[in-house]
Backbone:
């Protein structure tokens, strides 16, 4: 949880999540869906960070012309 001090550390008054949403919805035809989360970050044990692409992510890494199992 961010404190008010952290929110104002850069002078914007926004949290990191609010800044991300603001940036991703700034384009003329952008929608709220554009700001939807695309990854899940977990820490299964100390010193380990796991980053998974969400199954429901609209934008996914890789070549869209190749089958997913290639």
Residues:
């Amino acid at each position: 949880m961010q404190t008010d001090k952290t929110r104002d550390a850069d002078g914007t008054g926004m949290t990191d999540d609010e800044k991300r949403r603001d940036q991703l919805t700034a384009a003329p035809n952008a929608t709220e869906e554009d700001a939807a989360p695309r990854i899940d970050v977990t820490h299964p044990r100390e010193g380990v960070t796991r980053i998974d692409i969400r199954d429901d992510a609209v934008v996914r890494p890789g070549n869209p012309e190749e089958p997913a199992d290639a």
